[in-house]
Amino acid sequence: MRTARVAITLGLLLVLMPGAAVLGALERSVPANVVDFSLTLEEIHRILEEHGAAGLPTDRAVLLDGVVAEITVIDPDPESYLAQIDLVSGRWIGLQEVRLYRAYVFVQGSAFAERISARPLPEDATGVIALNSRVIVLGSIIDVFVDEDGTRAPIIDGFDLRPIN
């Protein structure tokens, strides 16, 4: 799994970093009429299974919720901050099986540097996103990662990220 994470990280650095200076200088926003509020991580995975990456919406932003399973800070400098967040959700199938749905969310810019912590936080910390935080993500699907076992997961360019209490 570490090899997969490195591959995703390096690949996205090549995609995201050339535009980081421009994106950091501009405030990114998404008009409400181009956000697909109907998609969930489960639905995205169903689309991937049935139609492949071509079936995913790339012309609209998505609003997803889930739990932060892992945070990898790639660039800790506040001015050029870049982090990968593994967002997961799941559902029980019967009484003995849990189906897990995953997305790799990349966030960049100084706005995220103070709001994300890769270290555990005290229980009374509010507004900071850490491991096991339940969050909502606004972003766009930019690619699909295929793991060694063939499992696919969307790669999301995160515009905004908020904890859900």
Entry keywords:
alpha/beta, single chain, OB fold (Dihydrolipoamide Acetyltransferase, E2P), 165 residues
Describe this structure in words.
The chain has a single domain, classed as Nucleic acid-binding proteins (OB fold (Dihydrolipoamide Acetyltransferase, E2P)). About 20% of the residues lie in helices and about 40% in strands. It is built from 4 helices and 6 strands, in the order ααβαβββαββ. It has helices at about 1-15, 20-25, 40-50, 110-115, and strands at about 35, 60-75, 80-95, 95-110, 135-145, 150-165. It is globular. It starts with a helix and ends with a strand.
The CATH topology assignment is OB fold (Dihydrolipoamide Acetyltransferase, E2P)
Please give the order of strands in the largest beta sheet: 2-3-4-6-5
Task: State the end-to-end CA separation.
Answer: 30 Å
Write down the overall geometry: globular
Poorly predicted runs are 17-26
Name the CATH superfamily classification.
Nucleic acid-binding proteins
Q: Number of domains in the coordinates?
A: 1
Number of DSSP-assigned strands: 6
Encode the helix/strand succession as letters: HHEHEEEHEE
- Overall average pLDDT: 82
Instruction: Give the name of the CATH architecture.
Output: Beta Barrel
In percent, how helical is the residue content?
10-25%
CATH class: Mainly Beta
Strand content: 35-45%
Rg value: 16 Å
- What structural class do helix, strand and pairing data support? alpha/beta
Count of helical stretches: 4
For the biggest sheet, the summary is:
5 strands, mixed, barrel
